[in-house]
Amino acid sequence: MEIPGSGSLARQPSILLNAHLDTLERSTPEFLAFDAGTGDFCHPHEADVGKSSSFGGDDRSGVAVIVEAIRCVQADYWSRGVAHRRVLLVFTADEERGCLGARYLSQREPDLFAALEVTLSIDGPLDFRSDYPRDSFVAVVSESDAKIMPYQRVIGLMQEFCERRGARFGTTETGLGMGDFAHFPPSARGGLHLRSPVRGFHNKERVNVQDFVNHIDLLCYLLLAWDHPLPAKLSPETLKAVSQ
Fold first, then answer.
1. Residue 80 has pLDDT above 80, yes or no
2. Domains in the chain with CATH codes
3. CA dihedral (217, 219, 223, 227) positive or negative
4. What percent of the chain has pLDDT over 70?
5. Is residue 206 within a helix (H) or strand (E), and if so which, with residue range?
């Protein structure tokens, strides 16, 4: 899906948002449950080692974060005149079978990745070899890439967001080369990705409601702040004035 840019940013390089639609073949979303005590969506079979306990949080939680963030910024900001650059939403198939969708796009649709400022993929468990829950967000990026643009810009905006929220984020190199983003061409500029709000690596999956909302808020912030200095109190009216 393409969301054309607007105003003075219409011709600026694009942002590509990516997550994968497919899940493990053994996932059983029909058993999705909610744990009111923890605020987690969960799987009722998570204590049974003989049964699958994946409901598809990897990576449908990432897809949901992107869709809801776009809905929010479109309804509250872009539709009210706040200028933005072109945004591409690319939801890939067959990531769990060797990133076949990403490989196909890279080979057959290379123009999709032309003129991009950055690709932001959302994939991988939030608690996978990370400092969660101390860190509310996890960026996967190499130490060398973290020091160069556009990834340095992403990390800087994450820092701003967390300072506003009184939260923390962490970085890790665990996960590089393990998802669709690793098979996009260099022109995609996909050297940094964000972990999804799902916990549990293909087993005992859980998605905390607050983690989910936090990731939506973060992505909204990244999309808005990429081009506009954000005021202390964010509203459509004040941001529109800043963008003009």
1. yes
2. 2-243 (3.40.630.10)
3. positive
4. 100
5. strand 206-208
pTM: 0.96
User: Would you call 137 helix, strand, or coil by DSSP?
Assistant: strand
Give the span between the Cα atoms of 107 and 102, in whole angstroms.
9
18 forms bridges with which residues in the sheet? 90, 121
| Contact (Cβ atoms closer than 8 angstroms) between residue 169 and residue 159 | yes
pLDDT class of 93 with cuts at 50, 70, 90: very high
List, in order, residues 6 or more apart from 99 with CB less than 8 Å away: 92, 179, 180, 182, 183
- Please tell me the distance from the alpha carbon of residue 82 to that of residue 228, in angstroms, as a whole number: 9
16 — pLDDT class (breaks 50, 70, 90): very high
pLDDT at 238: 84
Q: Which residues, including other chains, have CB under 8 Å from residue 232's CB and lie 6 or more apart? A: none
How many C-beta atoms lie closer than 10 Å to residue 159's C-beta? 12
Length of the chain, in residues: 244
